[in-house]
Each structure stands twice: as structure tokens, then as C-alpha cells.
Amino acid sequence: QVQLVESGGGLVQAGGSLRLSCAASGFISNINAMGWYRRAPGKQRELVATLTTGAITNYADSVKGRFTISRDNAKNTVYQQMHSLKPEDTAVYYCNAVNYYSINYWGQGTQVTVSS
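The structure assignment produced for this chain is given below.
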């Protein structure tokens, strides 16, 4: 099992910045990639950014140039730095980890609210 604990969400004005953190624990040696997804009110969950163990990143078009995913291997933590936030970025953000057997693990979610 892998446990994921997110932190760093909150309320910010448009144009502001936030940094999300996701600390992983448990059986993390088989993790192949970690990332962030989000679900806005009335919408389906969507991919925001992913980072593989080979340091390959993937971003949704809507966040390219504004969000950066990174990791601290010593802390088993993945971060998502978010700049130039827009009201449409308002959502619950979920940390995700997937292992080499394609098993997905999810955090509890953290709310990000961007006011206009």
C-alpha cells in the first residue's frame, strides 16, 4: 500500500501563487510516476501534471508555463508550484501515484480556490 498526504491548498487571488505538496509513504519502491489531478465543480477529474521516475514530465495544455511539478526524493515528496492562477484553476487537487503494476493510489484531495 502507498499512502499519499497532500497539503498546501487554500484561497488565493487571481494572478497569485500556491505550492502543493504530496508526501508518499508505505510501499513506494514500486512507484513509476506521481502526479496531480483536479476536479472542478460539475466537471470530470482531469490530469494536471505528471512526473515519472525517469524525470519525464507531462502537463495539461491549460497549465503549461504556469505550473511546475517537481520532487524531492529524500523526502518522498512531490510538489506542484502554481503561478499566475486563474479562477478556472479552482478545483480539488488530488495527488496520484501509479506503480509498475498500474495500480493507482490517491490522496484525500486539497481545495484550491482562486478568486477573481
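Interim note for the steering committee: The first strand starts at residue 2 and ends at 7. The chain has a mean pLDDT of 96.
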